[in-house]
Amino acid sequence: MGEHVHVRVNAGVAVSDAGELVETFRCGCGATWTRVYRVEEGEPER
Ligand SMILES: [Zn+2]
Q1: In the 8-state DSSP scheme, what is residue 4?
Q2: Source organism's superkingdom (predicted)?
Q3: pLDDT in tens, 13-35
Q4: Could you tell me the distance, in angstroms and rounded to a whole number, from the CA of residue 34 to the centre of ligand 1?
Q5: DSSP assignment, residue 21?
Q6: Which of 19, 26, 29, 41 has the fewest Cβ atoms nearer than 10 Å?
Q7: Residues 6+ apart with CB under 8 A from 28
């Protein structure tokens, strides 16, 4: 098949047991990605 450019569509956000923010992305081809954000209290950069 030719080169496929994934289109990452946000499929939802959840909070893990560790208190991290887990964002899920999906492409129409079935590929999925997850991004984990550390949510810390008193985040210095923001
Ligand atoms: Zn794709």
Answers
A1: -
A2: Bacteria
A3: 999 998 899 999 999 999 999 99
A4: 14
A5: E
A6: 41
A7: 7, 9
Residue carrying the six token digits 């208190």:
19
For the chain, give the percent of residues with pLDDT over 70: 85
CA angle 4, 31, 13 (to 5 degrees): 130
Count of CA atoms in the C-beta half-sphere (13 A) of 8:
8
Q: What pLDDT sits at residue 9?
A: 97
User: Which residues have CB less than 5 Å away from ligand 1 (the ion)?
Assistant: 6, 27, 29, 31
CA of 26 to the centre of ligand 1 (A): 8
Distance 45 CA to ligand 1 centre (A): 33
